[in-house]
Amino acid sequence: MNKKRVAINMTAQLLAFGVNMALGFILVPVIEAMIPNAYGFTDIANKFVSAAQIVVSALNTMASRFITIRIHRNEQQEAEEYFSSVFFANVIMAVVFMVPALFVVLYVGRIFQIPEAASLVDIQMLFFFIFLNFLISIVTSVFSVASYSKDRLELSSISTILGELTRLTVLSVCYLFFKPYLFYVGCASVCSTVIQAVANLTFTRKLLPEMKIRLRDFRWSKIWELVSLGAWNSVTRLGQLLLDGLNTSIANIMVSSAAMTTISISTQIPEVISNLMGTIAGVFNPQMTIAYAKDDKEQLLDIISSADRIMIFIISIPIAFLTVFGRSFFQLWVGKTQDPDQLYILALLNVGTLFVSASIQVLYHVFLITKRVKLNSMVIVGSGVLTVATVFVLLETTNLGMYAIVGVSMVYGILRNLIFTPLYAARCLQVKWYTFYGDILMGLVSIGLICLVVLPFELFIHIDGWIKLFAVGIVAGVLALFVNFFVVLRKAERQMVLEKVRSKLHRH
């Protein structure tokens, strides 16, 4: 494993993630204060996009794998045919999706409850811009393959940062100098995606100068090859959408628009943690794909082992902090417009699955590179169907309301990640069945110990302001790192860290 490349990619990806997280952190309370009970519509619009991505993913999730493997096996003509075929197929899909997108925009007022504080035209424009952003993103998605195939994810991070800074600029200008509307969020996303597309196109010309988009290289056979395998990834996305992607829509239709917004806000921090997991896991995906392309199983297992430990070392801390400090955080963040206790409980239910999945997130890429996605897809969609069915039953027969909508997803998610994911990944890699359970146990121990160590701060310090929360967080964070230093890192890794610290101190 190229540790230097991992460090560079990780730093860049985390920086891009931090910019995105900071923007969302600022944006939610501002919009909720200006337009009460309306922010949830951004989540609903994005869930429509997620539904459309189910179809798109049948083609695009496998594109990076096939192009990268062909490049590293020196099959240049094959790589170029995949590249051009994916681009033109995406253009065709974008044209097709324009019809249902316009239908939803025109009739959104008949589909959902619109709160009095919001404008129907504003909501329609929000949906229009978010759908437009989706169409632009799928047409230009193939240009992100270059940084992936060359294991230069820091370039992808640069494009993300440029896009997020653009989004921040557009939103700041709109909300500071004009009357507040919700559609600014969608408009800013369009500007961000355009900037990222231009950056990725530039990187493609630099990293893969020989890769050109040519109509003569378009092959229906390549599209069929990608879709026939990628269709199971679409099934996986459908299952994920059923598991937790419909929460806000179900809440709007079966409870109220206020419940929709409450659930949407409660998912913000768990989604940040989940996205951080995806960011870290994504850093290792190119090297895993390249190792598989070279038939180097030993290196592949080494990358997975390192990825799991790094994931636990980083992710266990925000999970534990949300568990311990979540109520105080929500009180400070949106306590004037929402019930912080309610948000805290919903957030814990949302993050519950991550207690298990955080330790084995990288295993999902194993299914993709080994082309063993079928069974995983069937299990996920099956659990998704059970989730939706169980939610409807509980809403009709109990008074659990929002807690049923969120809690059921957590239960099925935990069961799937405990029983199926580690076992099937071990089978795909032809290793012992219990290989990855040690990582799950390590993750739970790490989270539990950090919670015990930092709990006194929450119990004995009255956190009544952001400065105090950040001060407590810094001290607790140092203690959490100390815990993970001994729990997660192996002896050789601890010695390496200590040597680097000593060399830095000696240099100063």
TrEMBL record:
Keywords: Cell membrane, Membrane, Transmembrane, Transmembrane helix
Membrane-spanning segments: 12-31, 51-71, 83-106, 126-146, 158-177, 183-203, 310-330, 342-363, 375-395, 401-419, 440-463, 469-489
Native source organism of the sequence: Anaerosacchariphilus hominis
UniProt-listed PANTHER family: PSMA PROTEIN, PST FAMILY PREDICTED COLANIC ACID TRANSPORTER
Primary location group: membrane
Topological type in the membrane: Multi-pass membrane protein
InterPro entries: Poly_Biosynth_Transport (IPR050833)
Superkingdom of source: Bacteria
Protein name as annotated: Polysaccharide biosynthesis protein
GO cellular component, one term: plasma membrane
Cell location: Cell membrane
